[in-house]
């Protein structure tokens, strides 16, 4: 891992999430810190989201594979029907255990495992969605000193998910979709400048 303060970003989204990801992912530079995403999809859906986003993005966008090591410059997306977890050695694992918050993949499962692995070196982002998945995960990130961000519910196609997090936690930053990438890029540039 690099010596940067923040070493990974986890993103959770549900209803309306694809349009947001299609907006933000192409804006990240090629060698940005790794981004790991759960978007709720029907389990029998053949996901073409990674393939689609990869065509318009500078970062490599791919569906997560079991056992692969998380790398800078890559966006990993949970495959439909599998929970995506981050192990202590910063590899990815997949689980077909039961749904959590009626979802598999579950945002909470990703966020909680990432919080344990990355501790305070993690940024957790909750975007548009129509349930409360991700709230407990953001709480885990916050407890370990990570940074928490939610999409401004007023700008969300489905405001329930970010609003549930705001009702439960004191979130570090509430941002519109348009403000999200400039904020993250500025944060990454600032921490890069601080390195010796």
TrEMBL record:
<dbReference type="GO" id="GO:0000156">
    <property type="term" value="F:phosphorelay response regulator activity"/>
</dbReference>
<dbReference type="GO" id="GO:0008984">
    <property type="term" value="F:protein-glutamate methylesterase activity"/>
</dbReference>
<feature type="active site">
    <location>
        <position position="133"/>
    </location>
</feature>
<dbReference type="Pfam" id="PF01339">
    <property type="entry name" value="CheB_methylest"/>
</dbReference>
<dbReference type="GO" id="GO:0005737">
    <property type="term" value="C:cytoplasm"/>
</dbReference>
<dbReference type="GO" id="GO:0006935">
    <property type="term" value="P:chemotaxis"/>
</dbReference>
<dbReference type="InterPro" id="IPR000673">
    <property type="entry name" value="Sig_transdc_resp-reg_Me-estase"/>
</dbReference>
<dbReference type="InterPro" id="IPR035909">
    <property type="entry name" value="CheB_C"/>
</dbReference>
<keyword id="KW-0378">Hydrolase</keyword>
<feature type="active site">
    <location>
        <position position="14"/>
    </location>
</feature>
<keyword id="KW-0145">Chemotaxis</keyword>
<feature type="domain" description="CheB-type methylesterase">
    <location>
        <begin position="1"/>
        <end position="191"/>
    </location>
</feature>
<protein>
    <recommendedName>
        <fullName>protein-glutamate methylesterase</fullName>
        <ecNumber>3.1.1.61</ecNumber>
    </recommendedName>
</protein>
<feature type="active site">
    <location>
        <position position="40"/>
    </location>
</feature>
């Amino acid at each position: 891992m690099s010596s940067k303060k923040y070493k990974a970003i986890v993103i959770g989204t549900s209803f309306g999430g694809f349009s947001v990801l299609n907006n933000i992912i192409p804006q990240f530079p090629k060698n940005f810190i790794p981004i790991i995403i759960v978007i709720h999809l029907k389990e029998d859906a053949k996901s073409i989201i990674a393939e689609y986003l990869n065509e318009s993005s500078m970062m490599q966008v791919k569906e997560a594979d079991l056992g692969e090591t998380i790398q800078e410059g890559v966006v990993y997306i949970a495959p439909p029907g599998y929970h995506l977890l981050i192990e202590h050695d910063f590899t990815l694992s997949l689980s077909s255990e039961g749904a959590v918050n009626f979802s598999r993949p579950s945002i909470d499962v990703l966020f909680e495992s990432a919080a344990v692995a990355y501790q305070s070196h993690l940024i957790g982002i909750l975007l548009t969605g129509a349930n409360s998945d991700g709230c407990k995960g953001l709480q885990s990130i916050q407890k370990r000193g990570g940074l928490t961000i939610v999409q401004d519910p007023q700008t969300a196609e489905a405001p329930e998910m970010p609003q549930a997090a705001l009702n439960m936690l004191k979130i570090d930053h509430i941002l519109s979709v348009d403000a999200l990438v400039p904020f993250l890029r500025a944060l990454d540039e600032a921490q890069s400048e601080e390195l010796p």
